């Protein structure tokens, strides 16, 4: 598709960026031809090690023998890399600019201040009995204490498992149980768009709903809004009381490079969320390096990623990458549309943001409100714009480039996943000409490839399943407590390759264009959702006999959730029931899983062996029922006519 508009790298960017095209080509070639030398040098230059490593890469994607180790005989501490080593040179520099939901509240936290807060809370965690290797669940709003808690865990070698604050008590409870976590760190309430989110109440409900509520020994509560909360005096502790009187000195635990740093649950094509395990050395090397090169981060820059720490983007590109690089990172508690849709512009102006990183869904939501949506905000501090989470359609790309970037900021479309730990495919700002809608070229060490459904490599330009042929330092090491599932999910579809679950096209210039998931995962507003999770929630409702969930194109969210429901015999299909089902899923999983459209389906299209043909359901939901393809294998082809006739209008 070389007919697409191409935005060349400007001479100024090529001259000033960390990597221009020649440097990218040279570094990329070395990273794949001589990974031990390349990553050894990068890891020594980027990160401070306690004991140096001698072994760099030790990875195998072979079925039955999947094993991934990086820098395995080295030791380090991630919190010390994000804090201690910066104190001498930048102790007074702002590490975190916190911008509250309420536009009049903000806070600048210096590296020294952050170091002290982390030290105190790390000691408080130890006093609660938290030890190296223990799992701590964080269920927090976007307040500085979330970053403090992450770094405090890293400091003492505890493994954090952050559950997004928008998840329901049930979803939280399952993740606490699965991770074997005996401590939960939360706040009384969170603030979002002028509303309050009852986090502590949700934690109480989550614990009450667990098989073994007594397994949660302690709940640490940050006083955030001062709202009323229920209190269990044996179990609950105020954060401010725990840290009062604690020393700021807490020795950083010496961690093996392959010791776990965090777990993060994400949705897959089967019902249960998977806890991806990320380890210490490879992760932090890759997070820091990608943050530096992709955003061209330079000393003194103010960098803002609008994600939530509940997602991997918040881990790697609000906290770990920027702080490892001694950067200034903005942490935003609110939403783009509160108090009004000019908020992003106001915050960029207020904090003189240089690099801005957000999701296409936010861009589309603003775009819809018109070109003057950011008001009279001064956006002249912006140097670079980033996009993540879903394919960015060229219209949104152009708007981002023209209206926010004034045509002067490189737009970096970053493709990656919870599993990959860091950015994998991206046009580096000084090196790679951008094509709107294409994530373009691999980062150092990343070897993407396309395969057909039989696993044959596709050469040259073409369409296929996106796989990665060899290991990179930040790839997840396992599914927590279930290594067999890890191997089965990612390395068994195409033997010897990491399967991303995404489809992609490669053009004549070797650019990758991500076309979306090829499995039963949908991407709603950049949030990943397993259709099976929503289905199992629906069938748990007494009125529902059967449910099938698919994604459909949605103008703002990218994909919306389209549900086909077969009711139990005798249940009446009413609008009230529709609302009740939406409410049921919201309570069960969280608002992000709310169905957008529910169609009553007297029957679902199934093969003679009883398998639901989702391909057909996707086509009907997308209003492409003229492209249903072969329906002759259906047990009852007449079902399809009914579904087409009663398709829900958007
Ligand atoms: O389908 C791809 C899409 O988001 C999926 C990963 O979701 P998650 O693990 O939640 O991580 C999101 C943030 C890294 C991918 O399999 N995706 C992510 N970024 C892009 C994207 N699709 C197209 N273009 C992107 N830039």
Automatic annotation (TrEMBL):
Record's signal peptide: none
Source species of the chain: Litorivicinus lipolyticus
Chain residues that bind ATP: 389-391, 413-418, 502, 517, 528
Record bears the keyword Nucleotide-binding: yes
Essential cofactor(s): Mg(2+)
Domain of life (superkingdom): Bacteria
PANTHER family given in the database record: ACETYL-COENZYME A SYNTHETASE (PTHR24095)
Catalytic activity: acetate + ATP + CoA = acetyl-CoA + AMP + diphosphate
Membership in a protein family: Belongs to the ATP-dependent AMP-binding enzyme family.
UniProt domain AMP-dependent synthetase/ligase: residue ranges: 84-468
HAMAP family: Ac_CoA_synth (MF_01123)
PTM notes: Acetylated. Deacetylation by the SIR2-homolog deacetylase activates the enzyme.
SUPFAM superfamilies cross-referenced by the UniProt entry: Acetyl-CoA synthetase-like (SSF56801)
PROSITE patterns reported in the protein's UniProt record: AMP_BINDING (PS00455)
UniProt entry keywords in alphabetical sequence: Acetylation, ATP-binding, Ligase, Magnesium, Metal-binding, Nucleotide-binding
Stated name of the protein: Acetyl-coenzyme A synthetase
Stated role: Catalyzes the conversion of acetate into acetyl-CoA (AcCoA), an essential intermediate at the junction of anabolic and catabolic pathways. AcsA undergoes a two-step reaction. In the first half reaction, AcsA combines acetate with ATP to form acetyl-adenylate (AcAMP) intermediate. In the second half reaction, it can then transfer the acetyl group from AcAMP to the sulfhydryl group of CoA, forming the product AcCoA.
Domain Acetyl-coenzyme A synthetase N-terminal: 24-82
GO biological-process terms attached to the record: acetyl-CoA biosynthetic process from acetate
Residues bound to Mg(2+): 539, 541, 544
EC class: ligase
Chain positions recorded as CoA binding sites: 192-195, 313, 525, 586
